[in-house]
Amino acid sequence: xxxxxxxxxxxxxxxxxxxxxxxxxxxxxxxxxxxxxxxxxxxxxxxxxxxxxxxxxxxxxxxxxxxxxxxxxxxxxxx
Length: 79
Description:
The chain is 75% helix and 0% strand. The protein has helices spanning 4-16, 20-32, 36-48, 56-75. The longest helix has 20 residues, at 56-75. The protein is built from 4 helices and no strands. It is mainly α. Helix 1 runs antiparallel to helix 2 and helix 2 (20-32) crosses helix 3.
């Protein structure tokens, strides 16, 4: 089942309400689908331990992945 944009918006609402575990589940699913916003929010949760055990090293790896992907998007030559 696809999370989609509505699922990511729901995850943001859950996070603001303090339902970190549910938010992380949706962020994780969105990240697996390639949603960069979900991936960033998952990294944030991992960095600070919201809804998951804090894992700054894994968070850093996700941030690096986002930076690398973003660089590729903006530096790739046009066909």
